[in-house]
């Protein structure tokens, strides 16, 4: 099946699954409301420093929470098994699955997060860097997390195991992402952080599809 | 008749438990192979090995002639491989080879007497109807080797008749079909091998 056709299919399925598509954005709103309530007694300057970082951590958690869904449904309805039979195009279909999952689950968060930051008083410039860092960081997390999702797809309670596998691996992305946003906030240079995140993204774009196919075969064996 | 695949001394062991061993089987073009046996005898596992989903723990699988690794296989397991939130037509559309015409889907739905349900979501169909969509899905695209796990389960008499007719068409065109079953299959196709596992 072609790359575009798989993405088209995933969007059609998502359009019929109702409120589930909005859950990541709702979750981000809830976290930010709770965060603001809990630090309401702290001085405004400290809040302004913490908000973009808190948004980054929230996006990371949202990314982990919905990782499970990348392959789970396909595993349960049998389409995953079928897709691994034909030796040709397995990497292409896995890449399309990961991209459509990111577009549906994480991209809305990437768009909404800077808007929330602006609403909470963060400058436009810092919000823009927050947007770019999330735009590079969240797909990298999806790529990295999809390998763990593939390895644990056949396990019934795989969420905790998956979190344990991916959380330590997310640390560099989190450090670069929050560092870039913090540097933008204090007026320092943030280019190197964004470049490093870009390199990580390219690296995982190259290795993840093949690694996922191997991991899925191990899981289904 | 050309040999498609040769299986020699195939075995599968899981956690020191031997599921099966010494399976020897030749798959020829235009041949139906019915693998039958008791529950837990390893029918599905054997089919998954042929599909390349499960790794064998012993033996050889030799592809013949020009096929080598380019042998086009298609597989449907116990799970039907159809999406609940897509209609019967959409499920088939998204699995269709790029170069094929959409009319192929309508013709296949007509053959399987599912045309009235083409716009129904899969989750609203019965198990038997879902099975029909699943069978259409794999039989619509050309393959050298069709691997179908228990095709007769969930199908009514009419469904079985249509499945047999479609299978006959595939065999006549030179494709091979390997199915699993609980009993022998007799007097349906001329070139049938029943293999007890």
Helix-strand blueprint:
The complex is a heterodimer of chains A (221) and B (197).
Chain A lengths: L2 H13 L7 H16 L5 H22 L6 H6 L1 H5 L6 H30 L4 H28 L7 H28 L4 H30 L1
Helix pairs in contact in A: 1-6, 2-3, 2-6, 3-6, 3-7, 3-8, 6-7, 6-9, 7-8, 7-9, 8-9
Chain B lengths: L2 E12 L2 E12 L3 E5 L6 H9 L6 E6 L9 E4 L11 H6 L9 H9 L15 H14 L4 E4 L8 H16 L3 E6 L10 E5 L1
Parallel strand pairs in B: 3-7, 3-8, 5-6, 6-7
Antiparallel strand pairs in B: 1-2, 1-4
Helix pairs in contact in B: 4-5
Describe this structure as you would to a colleague.
Chain A has 221 residues and is mostly helical. Chain A has one domain (3-220). Chain A has 9 helices and no strands. In chain A, helix 2 (23-38) packs parallel to helix 6 (90-119), helix 6 crosses helix 9 (191-220) and helix 7 (124-151) runs antiparallel to helix 8. Chain A is elongated, with a radius of gyration of 18 Å. Chain A starts with a helix and ends with a helix. Chain B is α/β, with parallel strands linked by helices and 197 residues long. In chain B, 27% of the residues lie in helices and 27% in strands. Chain B has helices spanning 43-51, 88-93, 103-111, 127-140, 157-172; strands at residues 3-14, 17-28, 32-36, 58-63, 73-76, 145-148, 176-181, 192-196. In chain B, the strands form 2 sheets. A 5-stranded parallel sheet of chain B has the order 5-6-7-3-8, with helices on both faces. In chain B, helix 4 (127-140) packs parallel to helix 5 (157-172). Chain B starts with a strand and ends with a strand. Chain A binds chain B through residues 1-2, 5-6, 8-9, 12-13, 16-17, 76-79, 81-82, 84-87, 217, 220-221, and chain B through 48, 51-55, 69, 72-86, 90, 94-95, 98, 121, 138, 147.
């Amino acid at each position: 099946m072609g790359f575009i056709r798989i993405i088209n299919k995933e969007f059609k399925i998502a359009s019929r699954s109702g409120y589930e598509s909005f859950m990541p954005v709702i979750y981000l709103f809830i976290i930010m409301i709770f965060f603001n309530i809990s630090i309401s007694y702290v001085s405004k300057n400290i809040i302004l420093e913490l908000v973009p970082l808190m948004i980054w951590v929230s996006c990371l958690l949202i990314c982990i929470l919905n990782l499970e869904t990348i392959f789970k449904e396909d595993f349960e309805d049998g389409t995953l098994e079928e897709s691994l039979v034909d030796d040709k195009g397995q990497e292409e279909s896995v890449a399309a699955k990961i991209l459509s999952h990111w577009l549906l689950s994480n991209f809305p968060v990437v768009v909404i997060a800077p808007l929330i930051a602006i609403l909470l008083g963060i400058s436009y410039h810092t919000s823009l860097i927050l947007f770019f860092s999330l735009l590079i960081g969240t797909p990298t997390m999806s790529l990295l997390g999809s390998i763990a999702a593939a390895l644990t797809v056949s396990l019934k309670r795989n969420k905790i195991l998956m979190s344990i596998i991916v959380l330590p691996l997310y640390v560099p992305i989190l450090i670069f992402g929050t560092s870039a946003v913090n540097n933008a906030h204090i007026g320092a240079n943030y280019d190197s952080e964004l470049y490093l995140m870009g390199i990580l993204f390219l690296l995982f774009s190259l290795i993840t599809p093949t690694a996922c196919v191997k991991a899925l075969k191990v899981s289904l064996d | 008749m050309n040999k498609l695949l040769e299986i020699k001394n195939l075995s599968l062991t899981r956690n020191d438990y031997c599921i099966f061993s010494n399976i020897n089987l030749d798959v020829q073009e235009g041949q139906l192979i019915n693998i039958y046996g008791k529950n837990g005898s390893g029918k599905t596992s054997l089919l998954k090995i042929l599909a390349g989903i499960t790794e064998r723990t012993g033996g050889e699988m030799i592809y013949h002639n020009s096929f080598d690794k380019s042998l086009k296989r298609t597989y449907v397991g116990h799970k039907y491989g159809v999406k609940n939130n897509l209609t019967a037509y959409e499920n088939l559309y998204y699995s269709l080879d790029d170069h094929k015409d959409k009319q192929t889907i309508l013709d296949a739905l007509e053959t399987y007497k599912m045309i009235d349900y083409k716009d129904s979501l899969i989750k609203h169909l019965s198990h038997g109807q879902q099975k029909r969509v699943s069978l259409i899905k794999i039989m619509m695209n050309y393959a050298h080797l069709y691997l179908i796990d228990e095709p007769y389960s969930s199908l009514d008499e009419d469904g079985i008749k249509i499945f047999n007719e479609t299978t006959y068409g595939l065999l006549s065109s030179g494709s091979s079909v390997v199915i699993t079953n609980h009993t022998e299959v007799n007097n349906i196709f001329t070139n049938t091998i029943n293999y007890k596992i």
